[in-house]
Amino acid sequence: MRAEQVSVDERIYRSIFEGVLNRRLSPGTKLPEPELCALFGASRAVVRRALEKLAYDGIVALRPNKGAVIAQPTREETHMIFEARRALECSLVQLATQRASAADIAALREQLNEEHEAMHRFDQPSWARLASSFHLRIAALAGNAVLERYLTELVSRCSLIVGAYEPVGNAPCEHGEHCAILDCLEAGDAAGAMAHMSAHLRELEARIETSRMPGEKGLAHLLGINPSQPVRRLAHSRKVSRPGVP
């Protein structure tokens, strides 16, 4: 599709989506409508249409009377996203093993070389972009546009999680793990490729610092009470003391 054929709301969507994918936009980043209108020369109706689509895809959170922000996934959402991604990517890598040509494998191998170079020059933005692209290119080789579209959304949501909550200095994806997946693809070893992909995504999830994530905190947590400890019942008293009052 030529650039002039892309609608304004689609350009806004792609710009924000790619900003998340490349980790330029972190969770909680505000997306003021007036600023987006000025940046893209768009009306508020067009900007809102793009933001609503991003919210539908889980990339943006729309807050009543406060505007839009980049979504902040919780621990529970993170687990579900990675679980869905493992199931989807194992199917995609199996299909890719059956359908990838020698030229496809060579192109992926060249991309892994670029990823390795970016890693060694500490170019984090390129590193992150190439790591995400590796997974999306395997999805493209699977030849199923529907599954590929679902993975594109999941990879973007994972980029949001990894960029915000993985320890500083870690690789967004381990280069050696990518090499192992590609070796299996080249050998036509679908079972091996699926096993390496599943292990790779589990390892990526394990590196996430979930302690820094917003969680679903219940009343016990907010009151500083450990619900696993037995409750000590107090004897009835005719007078209830107030804090600071004898």
UniProtKB/TrEMBL annotation:
Has the keyword Transcription been applied to this entry?
Answer: yes
Q: Which InterPro entries match?
A: GntR_C (IPR011711), TF_FadR/GntR_C (IPR008920), Tscrpt_reg_HTH_GntR (IPR000524), WH-like_DNA-bd_sf (IPR036388), WH_DNA-bd_sf (IPR036390)
Which Gene Ontology molecular function entries are recorded, alphabetically?
A: DNA binding; DNA-binding transcription factor activity
- In what residue span(s) does the HTH gntR-type domain sit? 6-73
**Which UniProt key words apply to this protein?**
DNA-binding, Transcription, Transcription regulation
A Pfam family assignment = FCD
Q: Say yes or no: keyword DNA-binding present.
A: yes
**Name of the protein:** GntR family transcriptional regulator
Query: What is the scientific name of the source organism?
Result: Paraburkholderia sacchari
